Amino acid sequence: MPRRGRRWPGALRAAAAVALPGLAGLALGHGPVAATVALGAFAVVYGEGRAYRARWKVVLFVAAALVALAGVGAGVGVLVQTGAPETWLLLVAVMTAVVAVGAFLVDALRFGAPGAFLPLLTLEIAAALPSAGVPVVAVVSWTAAGAGTAVLVSMSGVVLRPRTPERVAVAAAVSAVDTCLRAPAALGPRHEAVRALHAAWMCLHDGRIGESDHPLARTLRAAHLRLATLVAGTDEGAASETDDLRPQPPLPRPSVRYRLARAARPGSRSWTIVVRLAVAGPVAGALALAGGVGRPDWAVITAAMVLHQGPDRVLGSYRGLHRFAGTVVGLGVLAAVVWAAPTAVGVVVVVAVLLAGTEEYLVRNYGVAMVFITPLALLLGSGGVPHNFTVVARDRLLETVIGVFVAVAVLWFVLPSAHRRVLRFADARVAETVATIVHARAAGERTALPELCRDLEFDLHAATTAAIVAAHSEPAWTRDRWPEHRRLHETGYRVLTHPG
């Protein structure tokens, strides 16, 4: 379980985003339904690790999306109350569409964890609340209260310590580099150090100091050069093949338009994820309905969460195991909560603690995160403590088995050669961008070179990720492909180092 830096402040912010509006709602005479603020409070998670200059935009965007999805989910939930089979199919279709669009955007923009998970969870929980007697207006109102609090809590430190996210990111990167240098032959510390360096540079770029002479940039640049000299040597045009580390710091991200346009091309990694989600969602929902469970949505969300993070079949299979094991333990946690029979205040506090645990572990270990997510989702979806725990636990366990089975089957049998196509696509993008830079240089179009270099570095990172996925999925084929991929990799970084 990787440490991933100092996460307890984010966990406290997540708990506060639930506890503050939830306890205020109880003080005003509302019951356990006040815990529904957690649906909007999910937005606070998306701000962690980002500079304040970018954080408010991300959290505000996610908060608005969560409120809208809560309204859509509750509206569909009202229809589901009629009991007609087609309404369940409508819910399955809406959930599949939402996670497919969300996963495409997250993968295309490299948004990172938790990705499309929490928006889909918001939709699923909101769809269950009308059956618990919560009106649509109440669902939307409580979600909006939590979303507004999430924005305020997320930005709470900007006045007194406006560079805290950047300082924390740089400190984590320097610590990871020091750990790596103490054991230079170990791959785990090296990969963690490269990841921490990249995260810190993106944080500084978001804060508009990545390319400046700010003390934090100087500190990070020194740590970066120490590790790069060890890994890639002193050749300025060289970069390591498995993590793209080179002496020069990473460039800022390309424009949103470029990233979306790149992902929209057929053959991209993002389209592979979308196609598999479009297959898995309806199949998991139909099997759950055929199995006679109370609600098919948990099967859909289980399949979606195994698939939405990428096309790697090996890692996806591990996520499926994590999902099942975490759900089983999470149901045990819920059993303890049911036995304790908490008051309305207790429910809000428990939900706040569970969301804090989710924030703490979601990007570190999916199985452990599910221990918190499972009781969190079932408490919120029931409008408090479930009345019939045995039925709820049985249905959720069966739906989890169905969802994991469908997801793993889709990973291995739907687009089974997708890793080949994705690697070819990624390498072709590198070759195309290199040719564009060479043409711009020959034509004297110097003003276009900085943006083209950002695009090329992005394409090189994507190609490296595609090569790693291919190596996991089909080692023999990747071994034959590797010389061509390596040639493009080296050419790309030579051009990136000397674009002019």
UniProtKB/TrEMBL annotation:
Principal cellular location given in the protein's record: membrane
Spans through the membrane: 56-80, 87-106, 126-153, 273-293, 324-354, 366-385, 397-415
Membrane topology: Multi-pass membrane protein
Superkingdom assignment: Bacteria
Domain Integral membrane bound transporter: 284-410
Alphabetical UniProt keywords: Membrane, Transmembrane, Transmembrane helix
Compartments in which it is found: Membrane
Keyword Transmembrane carried by entry: yes
InterPro entries per record: Memb_transporter_dom
Pfam family, one: FUSC_2
Record protein name field: FUSC family protein
